[in-house]
């Protein structure tokens, strides 16, 4: 086998290596090193080093060192060092990072760079759960993962009050200025979505928090915050700070800025260094499973979701699996809260357009990546085949006669991201965000309970 300067593979190719440009309709597999540019519709696999730019629709895997950029629709993985940039919609993995990772989940053994994502598992880093209060919400929980040089934060908060309710969620980033192991200053930036009757509020913060270690795993945090809050007006029972008089509504978002405070307790821990272990999943493993989902739509008006799934999971070896899923889902909708629109014709007919409960058969293909033996992260793409359309047209005639006709889209593109845990006895549980992109009321957070068995 020879090292090619140019390799064009209509479906896929298997070569000793590439020192130039390689294009693959589905895949590229190189036994040794690859340089400069490698593109594939599904996956790239390099047995040696990769230097340059590597792009794939699903995954890139390099069995040695990456010097350059990896971009993948789902997963990037380097068995040794990454000196450069990894960008993936789902997961990035590296043994040693001397660069930047951007993805939902980033996993690295030793980091001298920055991992930017919802969850960062850095073996020489930390994870921290913080319980705090601030001048706007009295109950807040955050998860910080990364290193003191750079970490990401997941945020959830609520102001628990009978007449001043408020809920928020978002993410942020931060850096610690270390005075000692027991005293340091955290500088953080955060952005949250807030609910005060409508999910239209946006809350940006800059924080300066002093950390004082009280015990081995417990720290006291406190400090000032700068806040910028954009809002459209809170409803009755929600935060009074963001009420808008009726005569001022409809003028667009209002903005408040102020200096506030935050204080609380942080519970600290560190990730365990990884060890070389035997493969936990064999490439021939095939599973069949069934699942139940139940969830809640995050848009207004509130709706619930129930459904069931049947799925096949194929392990590809290492930490990656593929899934094919089909099922049934029911999106409820209270039509009285769905803000119907009206149109009156010159002849006296009135059309009333109302969104209705949507029933569909979702079909999805996905990728799972395991961060440990049982904890996995997953991404799915697919389509929903509607059993009914998502809207109803009610026409009322002057004589009182009423006609009803379904209208609107029936089918939709859908995507989902999830985190789950697989038990040894075949049970699985997890949390999933799923969106049927063509419809307004189908962005949802679901709980998933499943059972699978090996074929």
What keyword list fits this structure?
mainly beta, Porin, 455 residues, 15-stranded parallel beta sheet, 35 strands
Radius of gyration: 26 Å
The CATH topology of the largest domain turns out to be Porin
Helix-strand category = mainly beta
Unreliable residue stretches: 275-281
Structure description:
The chain is mostly beta strands. It has no helices and 35 strands. The strands form four sheets. The protein has a 15-stranded parallel sheet that branches. An eight-stranded antiparallel beta barrel has the order 16-17-18-19-20-21-22-23. Strands 24-25-26-29-30-33-34-35 form an eight-stranded antiparallel barrel. Strand 25 (about 305-315) and strand 26 (about 320-330) form a beta hairpin. The protein is globular. The two termini are about 40 Å apart. The model is unreliable at about 275-280 (pLDDT under 50).
Q: How is this structure best summarized?
A:
By secondary structure, this protein is mostly beta strands. Helix content is 0%, strand content 67%.
List the helices and strands and how they pair.
Elements: E1 3-9, E2 12-15, E3 17-24, E4 27-30, E5 34-40, E6 43-46, E7 50-56, E8 59-62, E9 66-72, E10 75-88, E11 91-97, E12 100-102, E13 105-111, E14 114-116, E15 119-122, E16 126-134, E17 139-146, E18 151-159, E19 166-180, E20 183-195, E21 201-215, E22 218-231, E23 254-270, E24 286-297, E25 304-315, E26 320-331, E27 341-344, E28 350-355, E29 358-370, E30 375-386, E31 391-396, E32 402-407, E33 412-422, E34 427-436, E35 443-454
Parallel strand pairs: 1-3, 2-4, 3-5, 4-6, 5-7, 6-8, 7-9, 8-10, 9-10, 10-11, 10-12, 11-13, 12-14, 13-15
Antiparallel strand pairs: 16-17, 16-23, 17-18, 18-19, 19-20, 20-21, 21-22, 22-23, 24-25, 24-35, 25-26, 26-29, 27-28, 28-31, 29-30, 30-33, 31-32, 33-34, 34-35
């Amino acid at each position: 086998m020879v090292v090619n300067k140019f390799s064009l593979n209509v479906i896929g190719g298997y070569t000793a290596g590439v020192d130039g440009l390689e294009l693959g309709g589905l895949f590229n597999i190189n036994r040794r090193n690859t340089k400069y540019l490698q593109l594939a519709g599904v996956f790239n696999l390099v047995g040696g080093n990769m230097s340059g730019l590597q792009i794939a629709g699903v995954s890139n895997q390099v069995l040695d060192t990456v010097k350059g950029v990896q971009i993948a629709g789902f997963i990037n993985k380097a068995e040794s060092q990454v000196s450069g940039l990894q960008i993936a919609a789902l997961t990035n993995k590296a043994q040693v990072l001397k660069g930047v990772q951007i993805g939902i989940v980033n996993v690295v053994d030793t980091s001298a760079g920055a991992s930017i994502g919802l969850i960062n598992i850095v073996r020489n880093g930390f994870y921290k759960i913080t319980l705090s209060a601030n001048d706007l919400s009295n109950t807040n929980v955050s998860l910080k993962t990364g290193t003191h040089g750079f970490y990401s934060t997941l945020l959830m908060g609520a102001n628990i009050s009978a007449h001043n309710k408020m809920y928020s969620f978002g993410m942020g980033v931060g850096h610690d200025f270390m005075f000692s192991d027991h005293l340091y200053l955290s500088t953080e930036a955060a952005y949250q979505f807030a609910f005060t009757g409508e999910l239209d509020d946006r809350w940006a913060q800059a924080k300066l928090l002093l950390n004082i270690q009280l015990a081995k795993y417990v720290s006291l945090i406190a400090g000032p915050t700068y806040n910028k809050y954009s809002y459209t007006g809170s409803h009755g029972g929600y935060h009074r700070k963001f009420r808008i008089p009726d005569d001022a509504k409809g003028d667009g978002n209002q903005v408040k800025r102020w200096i506030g405070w935050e204080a609380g307790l942080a519970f600290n821990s560190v990730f365990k260094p990884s060890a070389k272990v035997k493969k936990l999943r064999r490439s021939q493993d095939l599973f069949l499973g069934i699942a139940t989902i139940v969830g809640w739509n995050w848009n207004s008006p509130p709706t619930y979701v129930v459904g069931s799934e049947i799925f096949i999971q194929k392990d590809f070896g290492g930490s990656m699996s593929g899934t094919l899923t089909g099922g049934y889902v029911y999106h409820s909708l209270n039509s009285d809260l769905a803000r119907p629109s009206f149109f009156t014709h010159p002849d006296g007919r009135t059309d009333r357009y109302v969104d209705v409960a949507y029933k569909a058969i979702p079909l999805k293909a996905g990728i799972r990546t395991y961060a440990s033996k049982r904890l996995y992260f997953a991404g799915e793409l697919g389509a929903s085949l509607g059993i009914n359309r998502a809207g109803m047209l009610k026409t009322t005639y002057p004589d009182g006669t009423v006609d009803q006709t379904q209208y609107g889209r029936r089918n939709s593109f859908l995507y989902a991201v999830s985190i789950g845990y697989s038990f040894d006895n075949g049970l699985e549980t997890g949390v999933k965000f799923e969106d049927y992109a063509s419809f307004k009321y189908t962005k949802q957070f679901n709980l998933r309970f499943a059972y699978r068995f090996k074929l």
